[in-house]
What does this fold into?
Amino acid sequence: MPLDIVTGAQWGDEGKGRVVDLLSEKADIVARYNGGDNAGHTVTVAKAVYKLHVIPSGIIHPKTIGVLGGGMVLNPQTFVDEIQLLRKAGVEITPERLWVSDAVQLITPAHRLLDRAQDAALGKAQIGTTGRGIGPAYVDKASRRGLRVSDILDGEFFAGHVKAHFSEVNRLLTDWYHQPPMAVDALMTEYLGFAEQMRPYVRRIGPLLQNALNEGRSILAEGAQGTLLDVEQGTYPFVTSSCTTSAGVFSGLGLGVQPVRRVTGVTKAFQTRVGAGPFPTELDGEAAQSLRGTGANPWDEYGTTTGRPRRVGWLDLVLLNYAREVNGFNEIFLTKLDVLTGLKEISVCTAYQRDGKELRTLDFSGDARLLSQCVPTYETLPGWQADLRNCRVWRDLPEAARAYVRFIEEKTGLPVAYISVGPERSALIARG
Ligand code: IMP
It folds into this structure.
């Protein structure tokens, strides 16, 4: 009964979509356990590029069941749009192979408006959220006012609850944020329409997943965002509002704690971040531009969800080791090694200086204020000039690229099990 977990080791956007796409080939079920449509997972198959925000990217495999776990917050509009998009692309989507937990919390247009109004009101202290209503939806969940997917199943209750929610947020928007009110009646009609479209997919997920494991079927738990955006372990307060780490799998899927076969940490060969918050190894100018790309390709460093240019920097092994500890990684999936081609030298952060002391591991839990006081210490490795995109086995890589990978292994004590060298499914080196 194998349960495998894939989580991001950085600030999201590590390339988890393609990792899940690869690993889910052999999984019976792929389950998202946190976040909502703030995530953007890109999978490239032949010439088709799929950008998914809520439906697990593993659904592209015809025999895989996709699950949206109760730890998620779900915008029903995104859900129905993605079903249409996948069907148009020829992916079969039926309630037999797409399950939504009845415990998932709903994101409404009111949450989205509130998210933007609240972040804007922070002025210089803005988090730079994706504006998808994630924070307000999790706030409603924690303060026990949230709308759960299960509420959809009871029409009368749902209608009353939705109306009360829109009216309450309207008061906040108008009185506190001085914004125009939402047209509650039109929103009600739209929202109640989603109920019927979602109803066939709703399940009580925990027991279904436990049965699947008991019967020997395999589950791949797909994390959204990354460790450093975790609401507790991340660079607080510049984080998202969910548990992004492997610890979120059990509560987010409604499973009892049990052995996990493999926890795969996904990291880019360098570091990126969208939104505000400390980033010790951040680069600017030309060096940044060469890592970021021009935006002409879907895999350049521009947000899948927001289109914002990502901040970029050198790989930070202090943070990678922190992510290893927090998640219990067994292996690393290293993505985008090809992007480093052409650099004469590559710097890697192996320690921080803070208060006259050297830190090789974080002695605080991500705290943004403390992290912003850390100055990175770098080791420099030789770069390589060869294009890696056609490399398919370890020995195809130039010696300098292999040395870079070995350096990461040595400093983290983890095997780098896979290396991606391009956006296509096949642009991959499996170390075996
Ligand atoms: P929120 O999740 O929209 O509330 O955004 C909170 C922070 O997390 C912001 O800095 C976002 O840019 C960041 N964030 C949220 N989702 C993702 C993601 O999937 N990739 C990268 N950053 C993300």
The two ends are 22 Å apart (CA to CA).
